[in-house]
Amino acid sequence: MQKLFRAPFYVALLLALMFSPLLASAAPDDSSDQDQTAETTKPVDAPAALGSLQKRLDTIKQQVSTAKNDKSLSGLSDDALKLGSDADALGTALQPLRAQVQAKLDVLGPAPATGALPETPQVIKQRKDLNASKTALDNQIQQAGAIKTSANNLAAQIGGLRRDALKTQLALNTGSIFGSNFWSALTSPTDDDVERFGEYRQQMKDAWHLTWQPEWRVGSGLLLLAAILIGVFGSRVLDIPLAWLTPRWLPEGRLRRSFFAFATAAITIMTLGGAAKLFSLAFTRMPDVSEWVAETGELIVRLSIFSALIVGLGRSLLSIAHPSWRLPGIADPVAKTLDSFPKMLSAFILIFGLIEGINNLVGTSISVTLFGNGLSALLVAISAAFAPMRVNRLRRKLLAKGEQPEARSTLAGLLHLATSVMAFAIFVALVVGYVPLARFLTYELLWIGTVVACLYTLMHLAIDLSESLFSPSTASGRLLKHSLSLNDRHLSLAATLLSAVAKTVLLLTAVTLLLGGNFGTTTPLEIFSKVVDVWGGKGLEHLNIIPAHMVNALIFLIVGWYVLRSARRWLDNDFLPKTNMDRGMRASLVTLFSNVGLVLLILVTLSVLGIEWNRLAWIVSALSVGIGFGLQEIVKNFISGLILLTERPVKVGDLVSIGGVEGDIRRINVRATELQLSDRSTVIVPNSQFISQNVRNATMGNAQGVATIALTFPLDIDPEEVRNMLLEAYEAHDSIMETPAPSVSFSQLGPDGIVLSVTGYVNSPRVVSRTKSDLLYEILKKLREAGVSLSRTQTMVLANMPERGVGNTVE
Which of 106, 328, 368, 446 is least buried, going by the fewest C-beta atoms within 10 A? Predict the structure, then answer.
């Protein structure tokens, strides 16, 4: 069984041929249909009957072009089949008449040769009338046959439309899987299905016999032998040199794990996919092979590659043989429990995908198509539900034994929950009877899971490869460092930038695959192709919202928002701090990037949704009126915010004064700017005020602070001594810059004393107040130690004297 899971395509074709008794049933016995009734001379109005049949055919064609649901198409299919039967009956009824005419002509014999005795005029006229009747009957029989062929072809086209409708009409109730209608494909197959599968089986037999003809026998045997050997032993053989070369060629670190996981998946895809291609070539390389056989071979190859991808991802992520190199944090017991599920799932996908492809190829009935879709959805849902159940049971057993299983992350828990919910939804849809919905959910589950697993593996490989390539401890990093004269900071910056570019490309690729990807022969998202008009009104009368576009837009919005937030965090925390930009410049760039990215995200989401801007002229007009009356201030602040972020007259971290308020800029938003005052309170200032008012930016251009202290001394001091003490106090302070050097200026000489002004520069205006306070403490201390006092304040007192006059007393 293990070998069967590892190379499921070896028996896929045989399993597909044995899947339904439709293929094994013998052709119906038509002997009873070949019993001829006695010749009758009952007259048949062939022209009128043919006219009626042609009119019915035209009516059915017109109704098919306007049919909207499966019930209408089903009735039209029955009408087309009935029309073909009536046309066949008419042709059968005309055959005896033609035989009678031919018998009369045989009695008359051929016309006499030239020179023989001439016939009577009555005989000549009779032969002419009989030939005309024969020609008319031949034309009528041919026309009846053409109508029969057209009716059968129309029935086949209606069947194709119904199969396509199964992919778009998710709300189509086709019957529960427990109902008899679902199993009618096995219990009571239609004659048309038996005939089509019989023809397909005959072509398979012919291809089998042609493959083993003497001129092709040796090549076919070698191709099949190579396919078996490569499929069974190819990945095992290549795993040995991979495990030996990985620790010897790659540097120590996480790159070994991610590369080993990627290489394991690639080896599995190449070996199993190559084996499937050799298997297909063994039966399709002959020039006389039929079209159905060739298309079946291509189908096997495509499905085998996708199945091999699932098997390869399972082998790479679980890494049973090398648990120390396992990429995700999964415990060994859990990994061993999950080991068989990717192989079993790939076998289901291959077998039932092949059956569905064959059904589409030969054009089977709707019942057979529904049976294949429902059964494949059921088995895939069982696998998807059974795997989490076994893992949870194992985790409970480990906890009961006192062993601690691996810590499950939030993302892993969400994936586990989403898988379980999706499997339950598939079960419910199948039980209720919505097989198309179950098929859609099954394919979405498989496709999304595959894309996410590939993204996880490639994302780790890209990050680890970038870090290893530019790491100073690796040979490549040292080579780049010495050859380009780079330092470690530049190497770290390059690694961060390269990993970000790689992650962005991978995320965009994953989103593209999720929005419009497909696997095997089916596009899951094409099921939402039914167009539903949900908007109306003037200007939107031609706007149609397609459900598939709604899903695509929702997926794009969620993923785009996550990418935008991740890119903003990466810029703010990883990339920009490694540059030489100041904090304000970094904050402005992050804000500008967020605003522009949000606008682009909204525009692209609307585009994915299918909204054309030329249909929204009335909305733009309404917005213009609203802007003119009530939104002009918001728009003005928004534009001003963009100007602040681009021209940067002020930036985050600047100390500004505006409107009598002074504080540090903490954040520049779309509408307003936040200022933090010295008391830690916040003032919200509209962005337009920074454009229209005078703003003092104390820190613009790396402005320095100036700490100036003016002191008044008595006239009897030694100015030189005091000057030296002031300079010593300034020079001793840590905040005072050496260049430009502190200086003392003789500011004023007057009757009140000598005014000396000492000036020193600090690296920021924010520390001026604290520095001046420290300097005053130090200066007063030095003055007291030196016995130098500051000038006293002189006060004049005026007193009223007796009548003799006024006396003045001065202190």
Answer: 106
CB atoms within 10 A of CB 143: 20
Determine the number of helices (DSSP H) and then strands (DSSP E) in the chain: 25, 10
Integer Cα distance of 302 and 269 in angstroms: 11
Structural domain spans, the chain: 40-110+123-188, 194-524, 529-632, 641-697, 705-796
**Nearest residue to 168 via CA among 644, 635, 688, 524:** 524
Which fold, 705-796? Alpha-Beta Plaits (3.30.70)
Pairing of strands 655-658, 753-762: unpaired
For 361-411, the pLDDT digits (tens) are: 887 777 787 788 888 888 888 888 888 888 778 877 777 777 666 666 666
For all residues of the chain together, what is the average pLDDT?
Answer: 75
What are the tokens at 517? Answer: 């990807």
DSSP 748-760: EEETTEEEEEEEE
The DSSP string of 294-316 is HHHHHHHHHHHHHHHHHHHHHHH
Nearest to 703 by CA among 655, 774, 759, 773: 655
Tokens for 591? 């804000």
One fold for 641-697 and 705-796 = no
130, 134, 136, 138: CA torsion to nearest 10: 180
Name residues whose C-beta falls within 8 Å of residue 116's C-beta, 6 or more positions apart in sequence. Answer: none
Cis peptide before 740 (omega within 30 of 0): yes
Q: Which residues contact 43 (CB under 8 A, 6 or more apart)?
A: none
Provide the CA 598 distance to its chain's centre, in angstroms: 19
Token digits of residue 96: 């005896």
Distance (Å, whole) CA 369 – CA 354 = 12
Residue with tokens 């699932």: 310
Please give the angle made by the CA atoms of 496, 501 and 503, to the nearest 5 degrees.
Answer: 95
Please count the other Cβ atoms lying within 10 Å of the Cβ belonging to residue 788.
15
- Residue 197: closest CA among 363, 375, 10, 11: 363
Amino acid at 744: V
Cα separation, 165 vs 163, in Å, equals: 5
CA distance 694 to 668: 18
Neighbours of 416 (CB within 10 A): 15
Percentage with pLDDT > 70 across the chain: 77
Angstrom distances, CA of residue 522 to CA of 120, 357, 379, 397, 584: 73, 9, 18, 40, 52
222: pLDDT confidence band, cut at 50, 70 and 90? very high
Give me the CATH topology for the region 641-697.
Answer: SH3 type barrels. (2.30.30)
Amino acid letter, residue 322:
H
| Mean pLDDT score, 311-332 | 86
Q: Write out pLDDT tens, residues 486-531.
A: 787 778 878 888 888 888 888 878 877 776 544 433 333 333 333 2
